[in-house]
Design goal:
- By secondary structure, the chain is of the alpha/beta class.
- The chain is built from ten helices and 16 strands.
- The protein folds into two domains: 55-218 and 318-332, Rossmann fold (3-Layer(aba) Sandwich), CATH 3.40.50; 222-316.
- It has helices spanning 3-12, 18-22, 24-42, 68-82, 109-112, 114-123, 133-143, 253-262, 296-302, 320-332, and strands at 55-59, 86-90, 101-102, 127-129, 149-153, 165-170, 196-199, 214-217, 219-222, 225-227, 233-235, 244-248, 267-272, 291-294, 310-311, 314-317.
Length: 341
C-alpha cells in the first residue's frame, strides 16, 4: 500500500464518513469470511497446534502498528527477569523470503523482516520466523530446547497456533470508527475475548472492553538518546538547532515526527514511507548537511545503506500491574518459571 493511500484510509477510519460508508459492503464480505474462518476452529473442523510450552500472543485488532513490538520486547525482558527462558516467533512481515528460518543478530532485514531482527538484537533471545507460526515455534524449540515459554509477535488472528494468554495492544486510535476493514481499521470485531488489554497512548474515546479482560495504560515516548550504527549514543538535546531530516517507514509516520518536534528538534524535511518499506531504492535526502533520524525499526534496514543515520528508540513505560496480571494469568494456567530469578 502506498503512503498516500494509507494516509487516506487512516483518515477515513477515524469516523463514519462517506468513504467509510461506501466501503461497508466490502467490510461485510470481509466480516463474513472472517467469521467463517473462526467457526472452522471453534467447531473443531480445523485444529490449532498446541505446543509443549506456554504461548503468549501479543497483537492488535486494528490494521497497522499499535506498538505491539515494543510490548513484545517489554514482556520478553520481564519474563527473563522472572526466570523464564523465552523465545519469540513471528511471521516477519515485509520480508522477501517465505521459508522458516532463524533470525540472527547480523541478519538481513529483507530476509527476516525488520521487527523480528529488531527483537533479536534488543531482546537477545532466539527468534524464528515463518508464515505458519507453529512451524517457527517447533523449529525454535528443536534448536533451543531450554526455552520454556514462547512469545508470538503479532498473530492474534493466526488461529492455527493455540495460545494461553492474549495481549491486545491499542494506540491513540483506539478502535477507530468501530468498523471492519476496509470501511474501518478493525481486522476482526471488537470487543472480542482477550486476557489483557494494553493501551500505549492516550485515546480520545473510551475503549470498549471484553468481559474478564484486564485493562492497563502504558506510556510511549522517545528515548532521550539517539543511537548510531556502531552502538554509541547521542543525546537528543545536542541535536537541537541542527539541520535535521526525519524518515519513518511505519504505520503512523507523523506520530514519530510529532514526537521529534515535541523533543525540541527542528525537522527541515520529513519522509513518510509505507510500513515495512524497503530502502534499497530510496534516494538519499538532497542536502548532505542534514542529519537523518529514523525509528529503530527502520534503522535495521537503513544502516547498511546509510550508516550515518541516527535511530531514535521509543521508550515504553509499562505499569508493574500489567506484568503482575500477566504472571497471574500464567500461574492460573499452571505455568511457573523453572529457574529462580
Amino acid at each position: 500500500m502506498s503512503a498516500r493511500l494509507q494516509a487516506v484510509l487512516t483518515a477515513a477510519w477515524t469516523r463514519r464518513g462517506p468513504l467509510a460508508c461506501a466501503l461497508l459492503p466490502l467490510a461485510a464480505l470481509y466480516g463474513a469470511l472472517s467469521h467463517l474462518r473462526g467457526a472452522l476452529y471453534r467447531r473443531g473442523w480445523r485444529s490449532a497446534a498446541r505446543l509443549p510450552v506456554p504461548v503468549i500472543v501479543v497483537g492488535n485488532v486494528i490494521a497497522g502498528g499499535a506498538g505491539k513490538t515494543p510490548v513484545t520486547l517489554a514482556v520478553a525482558e520481564h519474563l527473563k527477569a522472572r526466570g523464564w527462558q523465552p523465545g519469540i516467533v513471528s511471521r516477519g512481515h515485509g520480508r522477501q523470503s517465505d521459508d522458516c528460518r532463524e533470525v540472527m543478530p547480523e541478519g538481513d532485514a529483507a530476509q527476516t523482516g525488520d521487527e523480528p531482527l529488531l527483537l533479536r538484537r534488543r531482546a537477545g533471545v532466539p527468534v524464528f520466523v515463518a508464515r505458519r507460526r507453529a512451524q517457527a515455534a517447533r523449529a525454535l524449540l528443536a534448536k533451543y530446547p531450554h526455552c520454556d515459554i514462547l512469545l508470538c509477535d503479532d498473530g492474534l488472528q493466526h488461529l492455527a497456533l493455540a495460545r494461553d494468554v492474549e495481549v491486545v495492544v491499542f494506540d491513540a486510535r483506539g478502535a477507530g470508527n468501530g468498523w471492519l476493514l476496509p470501511a474501518g481499521p478493525l481486522r476482526e470485531p471488537w470487543p472480542r475475548p482477550a486476557d489483557l488489554v494494553l493501551q500505549t497512548e492516550p485515546a480520545a474515546a473510551l475503549l470498549a472492553l471484553p468481559p474478564n479482560a484486564q485493562f492497563f495504560e502504558a506510556r510511549r515516548a522517545l528515548a532521550h538518546e539517539a543511537v548510531r550504527a556502531n552502538g554509541t549514543r547521542v543525546p537528543l538535546a545536542t541535536l537541537r538547532g541542527q539541520p535535521l531530516a526525519a524518515l519513518a517507514g511505519i504505520a503512523r509516520p507523523e506520530a514519530f515526527f510529532a514526537m521529534l518536534r515535541t523533543a525540541g528538534l527542528t525537522l527541515a524535511q520529513t519522509h513518510a514511507l509505507p510500513d515495512h518499506a524497503d530502502f534499497t531504492h530510496w534516494p538519499r535526502p538532497p542536502s548532505q548537511n542534514e542529519t537523518l533520524l529514523c525509528t529503530e525499526k527502520d534503522a535495521v534496514k537503513l544502516w547498511p545503506l546509510m550508516p550515518a543515520a541516527l535511530a531514535v528508540p521509543l521508550a515504553l513505560e509499562v505499569p508493574p500491574a500489567f506484568f503482575e496480571a500477566l504472571d497471574g494469568r500464567l500461574a492460573a494456567r499452571g505455568y511457573h518459571p523453572q529457574r529462580t530469578p
